[in-house]
Structure formats: structure tokens, C-alpha cells
Design brief:
about 325 residues; mainly alpha; 12 helices; globular; GPCR_Rhodpsn_7TM; G protein-coupled receptor activity; Olfactory receptor
């Protein structure tokens, strides 16, 4: 192998929307508005789940974790992306890129596992309501949430360490808005088949296995709901419809992004067109923005909790 072009990289160039200044300004405004909604919406859900004692249940404990996760996930990439839209300097240090890879992958993995845990919680609540307080006690749901975070951190540590140890050549242009791990990995001037295999194993464990758990849980939930009288079905469906909607949006976007067919030229050049990059960017902010809207609009408990907190605030004055 020839290693003439191998060098020690100190920074990467994030291509993003370079060459499209009008689009950069437009998407700066859009992404900024969406990011503000993410902070306000998810922050409100966290606040009311803490302040309202009626929401001190496993479901809302998981939801609070999901909201905190969405804030962390977007904060790892959105602020730097917004700065790059307005700045001519679109570089990121090697260490900064490694940190962004680690945080983004950790948050993404944790969300996949957490959604699986939330599906199991809904299964127990609907299919085994009498045993729900025993099965989903605090000794169960706290370790389940902690395990989701642990799985995300472990997966991210392993994959990030393997990537940063790769030798990189003079090409330091990442055709993306942020340091997406696969985009960085493809810049290495070495065989990355081992990294790709580990990524495949990790995807199976931390993405497909939770999806399988979600599928099994909701298959059993639907089967159980269809057996109860029709007047009670709407109430049973309402308890899990919000979570199912979030799952469909989350996994649906992932499947659309990574499984839609690409032309042979794009596959060979490792290039990424503007449409693909915009879809990827909106995926990173759309789902975290939609989660609090879905859970508040489709959930009476959350609506009542918001009213209760607001009333308590105004009456105290």
C-alpha cells in the first residue's frame, strides 16, 4: 500500500451547503426556530414531569429521559451547524470532530434502546395492568433507563475509538453538516471493513433489536386491545398512540435515509447530494421537535399537568 498521502490531520472541513449561500441563510432561520422549539418543548415536558406528582410514573420517567436525550442530541450538532451557516470558516478540529461523533452516536443509540423500553412499558400497562405496579416498579424502570444510557455510551466509545485510530490522508473534506461517523470513516486511507462489520453488529444490537421488541410489544398490545369491548378500545389505544407515533417517525426516517436506493456513481464516489444532506439534517431536528408536540397534543395527562402547573404559578402570585 502507498502511504505517501498519509498525514496527521488537525482539522476537518465540513462542506455542508458550501456554494449555496442563499440556502444557508434560509436554513439558518428554519433550523434556529426548530431548535428553540426543541429546547422549549422538551424542557417543558421535563419540568412538568418533575413538578406534577401525578406524572411520577414509569411512562413519564422514560418520557423525561427521552426529552433530555433530544435536547442533548440536538445540542451536539445544531449550534455548530448554525455557526457554520453564517461563517466562512467551516472547519472543526480533529478532537472536536471525535467529540461530536461520540456524543451523536451515544445519543442516537440511547434513543433507540429507550424507545424499546418504552414499548415494553406500554405492553405491561395494557396487557398486564394488575401486575404493572410490581413489574414496572422503581427498581425496574430506573435500571432500564440507566441501561439505555449505558448501552449508548459503550457503543459510542467502541466505535469512536476505532475510528480515531484510523490513519487519515490529506483529504479532510466531510461532505456533511457535522462529523457523522460513517462520513469520517470513509476519509481513512486504510481498510475499514473491520469498522463496517462492527458498525453492522452494533446496528443489529442497538437499532434492530429494540425495533423487534417494539414490534412484538405492539403486536401483543393490538391483539389484547381487540379482545376488549369496543367502548374501551379508544382509551387503550390512546395510552400508547403517542409512543407509537414517535416510533414510526423515528424509525421511518432512518429507514428512508439509509435504505433508499442510491445511484452507482454516488455509491462509488462516497458523495452525498444536497437533498440527502438536508434530509439528514432535518431528521436530526424534526423528531426531537415533534416528540413534545405529539405527547402533549395526544395525552390528556400532560395537558392537565401543564394547566395545573400554570394555575399553581398564577395563584401563588
Amino acid at each position: 500500500m502507498e502511504w505517501e498521502n498519509q498525514t496527521i490531520l488537525v482539522e476537518f472541513f465540513l462542506k455542508g451547503l458550501s456554494g449555496y449561500p442563499r440556502l444557508e441563510l434560509l436554513f439558518f432561520v428554519l433550523i434556529l426556530i426548530m431548535y428553540v422549539f426543541i429546547l422549549l418543548g422538551n424542557g417543558t415536558l421535563i419540568l412538568i414531569s418533575i413538578l406534577d406528582s401525578h406524572l411520577h410514573t414509569p411512562m413519564y420517567f422514560f418520557l423525561g429521559n427521552l426529552s433530555f436525550l433530544d435536547i442533548c442530541y440536538t445540542t451536539t450538532s445544531v449550534p455548530s451547524t448554525l455557526v457554520s451557516f453564517l461563517s466562512e470558516r467551516k472547519t472543526i478540529s480533529f478532537s472536536g470532530c471525535a467529540l461530536q461523533m461520540f456524543l451523536g452516536l451515544a445519543m442516537g443509540t440511547t434513543e433507540c434502546v429507550l424507545l424499546g423500553m418504552m414499548a415494553f412499558d406500554r405492553y405491561v400497562a395494557i396487557c398486564n395492568p394488575l401486575r404493572y405496579p410490581i413489574i414496572m416498579s422503581k427498581n425496574s424502570y430506573v435500571p432500564m433507563a440507566a441501561g439505555s444510557w449505558f448501552a449508548g455510551v459503550i457503543n459510542s466509545v467502541v466505535q469512536t475509538v476505532l475510528v480515531v485510530q484510523l490513519p487519515f490522508c490529506r483529504n479532510n473534506i466531510i461532505n456533511h453538516f457535522s462529523c457523522e461517523i460513517l462520513a469520517v470513516m470513509k476519509l481513512a486511507c486504510a481498510d475499514i471493513s473491520g469498522n463496517e462489520f462492527i458498525m453492522l453488529v452494533a446496528t443489529t444490537l442497538f437499532t434492530m433489536m429494540p425495533l423487534l421488541l417494539i414490534f412484538i410489544s405492539y403486536s401483543l398490545i393490538i391483539s389484547s386491545i381487540l379482545k376488549i369491548p369496543s367502548e374501551g378500545r379508544s382509551k387503550a389505544f390512546s395510552t400508547c398512540s403517542a409512543h407509537l407515533t414517535v416510533v414510526i417517525i423515528f424509525y421511518g426516517t432512518i429507514l428512508f435515509m439509509y435504505m433508499k436506493p442510491k445511484s452507482k456513481e454516488i455509491l462509488n464516489s462516497n458523495d452525498l447530494n444536497v437533498t440527502d444532506k438536508l434530509i439528514s439534517m432535518f431528521y436530526g431536528v424534526m423528531t426531537p421537535m415533534m416528540n413534545p408536540l405529539i405527547y402533549s397534543l395526544r395525552n390528556k395527562d400532560v395537558k392537565e399537568a401543564v394547566k395545573h402547573v400554570l394555575n399553581r404559578k398564577f395563584t401563588s402570585k
